[in-house]
Amino acid sequence: MCILRHIFLILQLTSYFYGIFGGVCLIPSPVKRQSTRSILDHFIPMHPRLDGRIVGGHRINITDAPHQVSLQTSSHICGGSLISEEWILTAAHCTYGKTADRLRIRLGTSEFARNGELLRIQKIVQHEKFNFTNVDYDYSLLQLKHPIKFDESKKAIKLPEKEETFNDGETCHVSGWGNTQNLLESREWLREVEVPLVNQMLCNEKYEKYGGITERMICAGFLEGGKDACQGDSGGPMVNDAGVLVGVVSWGYGCAKPDYPGVYSRVSYARDWIKEHSGV
Ligand SMILES: *[C@@H]1O[C@H](CO)[C@@H](O)[C@H](O)[C@H]1NC(C)=O
Ligand SMILES: *[C@@H]1O[C@H](CO)[C@@H](O)[C@H](O)[C@H]1NC(C)=O
């Protein structure tokens, strides 16, 4: 029996019935961590529920992660990180098929739905090599229409050096609002989880049937599961103890499942690309 827990609606429906009727597994495809609430979760009670937010983490204040922003259309869809007074780094799968005039950024608040500032975007620079099939080159830059002023709830995060590497097991902090399961829950607070970086070759082995891990990716999580980022955290920051933006929340098989660490876009790989397009 094969049920993918976190996947876009059509696939979820298909894999659900395949699971029920004992069909073969669908060829697994990477499951992007964008916020796509499953209507099925409300209509088919036996369907596994989306975790919907940072899994196994704890509540934080925006002043603990002042680089964190929320990317919104009619509501929160993804996270992002301030890298300067006017540029935000997020995931390409968050901006895929979208235009700048449809997107807003909320920043300077611990709640994605209120307070802080809701700002317009001038321009989306999606990585030209972004591949939706295997989620390779999952980087997008967003330019704010008007630069902001930094304060204790809004600050840029430090970018890594070009090709900077990080140690296996190094602890990183992943933050985000994920997505709420409860339609009546109006206040959503920012959460954070601590996860260790996973060896690249090991992660590649774990994800072999999903096409593996490219050089543009870096994995983090516990092989026993339990702590992870999830849908709605996409595009958000993974920062190490030195305060460097190591990764951007990208994809994973399920969330917090044993043997399937979270996969992040490796920011050091895109260092030159970021510089070229934003000057940062
Ligand atoms: C958030 O900030 C408020 C006010 O400074 C403080 O009372 C509260 O303990 C903080 N919460 C967390 C989770 O840090
Ligand atoms: C995207 O990735 C898939 C799977 O690895 C590959 O088959 C395809 O050629 C890639 N597309 C481009 C345009 O590179």
UniProtKB/TrEMBL annotation:
CDD domains per the UniProt record, alphabetical: Tryp_SPc (cd00190)
Catalytic activity entry: Preferential cleavage: Arg-|-Xaa, Lys-|-Xaa
GO cellular component, one term: extracellular space
GO BP term, pick one: proteolysis
Membrane-spanning residues: 6-27
UniProt keyword Signal, yes or no: yes
SMART domains, per the entry: Tryp_SPc
A Gene Ontology molecular function term of the record: serine-type endopeptidase activity
Peptidase S1 domain boundaries: 54-279
Signal listed as a keyword: yes
Keywords carried by this UniProt record: Disulfide bond, Hydrolase, Membrane, Protease, Secreted, Serine protease, Signal, Transmembrane, Transmembrane helix, Zymogen
Taxonomy, superkingdom: Eukaryota
InterPro entries: Peptidase_S1_PA, Peptidase_S1_PA_chymotrypsin, Peptidase_S1A, Serine_Proteases_S1, Trypsin_dom, TRYPSIN_HIS, TRYPSIN_SER
Location(s) in or outside the cell: Secreted, Extracellular space
Assigned protein family: Belongs to the peptidase S1 family.
Protein name per Swiss-Prot or TrEMBL: Peptidase S1 domain-containing protein
Protein species of origin: Drosophila willistoni
